[in-house]
Design brief:
733 residues; alpha/beta; four-stranded antiparallel sheet
Amino acid sequence: MIGTRARFVITICAGSFLLFLVQPMIARMALPRLGGAPSVWNSAMLVYQALLLAGYAYAHLLGRVPARRQALIHLGLFLISAIFLPIGLMGWQPSADIAPALWVLWLLGASIGPLFFVVAAQAPLLQRWYALSEGRDPYPLYAASNLGSFAGLIAYPLLVEPLLALKAQSILWSLCYGALFFLVYMSARRLPAASPGEVAVETSDATPPDARRKLHWLALSAVPSGLMLATSLYLTTDIVAMPLLWIVPLGLYLLSFSVAFAARRGAADLCLSIAPLILLIGACIAFTGGVHFPVFIALGIVTVLFVASTALHARLYELRPAPAHLTRFYLLMSVGGMLGGLFCALIAPLIFDWTYEYPILLVAAALLLPDREAVLRLPRLLWENAQRRVWLATIMLLLGLALSLVGGGLVPDLKSPLIKTISFMAIIGLAVMALGHRWLTAGMLVYLMLCLSGWEKLSQSASGMLTRSYFGVYGVANKGDSERILFHGTTLHGVQNRAKDRELDPTSYYAPDSGVGLAMRHAPALFGPRARIDVVGLGAGTLACYVRPGQSWRFYEIDPAMVAIARNPADFTFLSRCQPHANIIIGDARMTLARQPAGGADLLVIDAFSSDSIPMHLLTREALDIYGQRLARDGVLLIHISNRYLDLRPVVAGDAAAEGWHARLRHYVPDKRDEGRHYAASIWVALSRDPARLDQLVRLSGREQWQLLKPRPGFSAWTDDHASILPVLKIRP
């Protein structure tokens, strides 16, 4: 027979595993309908946190009735929620004028709400049942719960997604839901009929937590939750919106609970000790960008998340109440997590034009860490004398401010890389001296970020150079005297040549000899003078200047903020000078294209990037079918697949082979003769159902320009039902 503790641990782990297996699964189901922007995942996380909060509130309220009645109510709710099986998305489609954030919240909440709610409630509820049954400390079971959650997240990208189609995933989850009902029933049978344990717990003389303690719990829960979402946004902005990356921050966030609430305190105490040092790494990451995204930066930011979350959650564990107040404690933890989610998913995009929430949360984390003796000997010696503490702290704060002003370039006579480096290192030294003192540490974090590029970022915000929407953060800036650039995250999205008489020259990925450049230049020969051209992804509007008299153009862009940038002559003049009355349709490409008349385009260009990657749902067989319906039978489809981290050639080749399309690839690399024209290397794939039309494009361009795109043996074409990025990950970017 399985012992009582083992039975409860297995049930709690199984429920948490199932709960967090469904998160990436539902997000994957939603991709074809919601798009792949990182903010979609943040909104999804907000829905999960709201449902988790509702489940914890239900568990807390249920504690007011006798234990056996709790079991009957909960098992009954399990059975009622089963009518929503098999799990999946509802078929509702929104009107075009509904805000994306509201649509995502409603769709996900209505689709999985009842099932998620009942599974979310069972973790705190069963911990309470364990305390009633055994009269022992139930908090270590929370560590087991989060291990189960972590296992569910890891299992999805590594096992479930590569091996099972979405329909099979839904059936598997539904079967596991039934198994979980049985486990909860078996655990409920361990509850004593007379509930003597319940009386012992409820009549505990433990002092109820006061308002200040509750606020402390809220803050310690909110900051790690917000850091998790901010880290997710940072990662998915520059690689690809996919569950494999979404689950990394969430998985580490959950794992931090397991470490922080474990019975053995060694790892948790270590994280509390080193957290101030690790936050310095986060401060450096927050304000060091550029067009490259090295692997060590990704490792650094997830390390910051894990250590900071573990430290703050360990502090939560230190402040935990007696078991009599367990469900209230978990409820307030859930409220705090929800507040962190609200801040990052809804409030920050509205009030900030850049991702300022991440540095704000780093500073908040530093302020929430307890004052304790520094790990290093020198800082301990500096602060031993109580009389000099105030003077020393004041001098350090003033000196740090001065160094941030000098290093940030606000002193004209002291602008140089050497001065910046010296200032940066000096602030690092001050931060090390401040270890163990949370207010000073927080101040040094602020000065460090200002010294790196914080003052510059604030200046860009003040001057209106940055734009933030639900779909990302965009920036428009001059790079030297010769070019004006548009960037999303750390990825270049458009360049305009500022040299005289070259303002309308195509640049970056759209050079005349790139794949799309060749197709645009030869469009009159391919389709006649009245060619019909559709472009998905507006960017700075560079492609607009390929227009020829008589042609009919139509642009599709998901983000109104991008349209405003492209239309504003103060930012870029491609649209205002080449197509001032351009026809631009707002919305996700798949949904807007599906509503257009069939056969209405001769050339269709797919250039819809979310930072560095095309959203996954635009590269499936179903997406290709939509493109085919929009194109004329002999039309040509151009897909931009340049990417630092994914080799998307097998994806497009597999889709083409499965749907009967013919494909050619153009890998363009500018040569030295093009220096100064701001061309960029790019990879474009041309596809057509008419091999003669594709051969004509190859002949007009020069046969050496295009190569045959062959499917990779054994590679399965992506579909809405089944797709995995593991086979196309680049080992070295």
